[in-house]
Amino acid sequence: MTKRSVIKNMSPRSQEQFEVIRESRKRQIMDTALRLFASEGYDHCSISMLAEQAGISKGLMYNYFNSKEALLSEIIEDGMREVLDLFDPNHDGVLTSEELESFIRRVFSAIRTNMEFWVLYISVLFQPGVRELLKEQQLIRYLERFTPILTDYFRRKGFEDPELEMLTLSALIEGFGALMIYAYPSMKIPDELIGKFENRIIGMYK
Questions:
Q1: Whole-model pTM?
Q2: pLDDT in tens, 5-45
Q3: Which domains does the chain carry?
């Protein structure tokens, strides 16, 4: 290797490369934290424990998240953002029949294909300490965005009780998610049966 090639290979990383590395490390920390929060309990996890399991120093951990609460908040925000992006992909606040069908199918698909994440995610959400922390935070804000859009959809479609239909559809989807999670990993619901359930819901509301 020539001196010139050595110098070239040692050239500083670009800003884009730094951002890619930073996002990769941030994702690593969040994935580690989600597993630990689910297995050890949010209240029992410390920043030191999270840093050790993520393979970084405690000081470096604070470069990404200034507290355990900020880390949890980012994890919850990430999951809620994914759901809302499926629900209102163009962010116009108006749900169409096609968007509703796409949302239902993509939610079912997301649960089936990334079951481990959602099992961990929901188990963390239901922990008492986490629920108290999130009462006035971003989870409520996402629900406040979700329910009016869905209620407006049923109102425009001429349903007699739009609020009731919003609640019913939400319960059907959330109930399916809970069923899949409680069954995981010991029992597998046949894909054909899941497909029939998807079509039943779409047929009810499209």
A1: 0.71
A2: 544 554 566 777 777 878 888 999 999 999 999 888 888 89
A3: 1-66 (1.10.10.60), 68-206 (1.10.357)
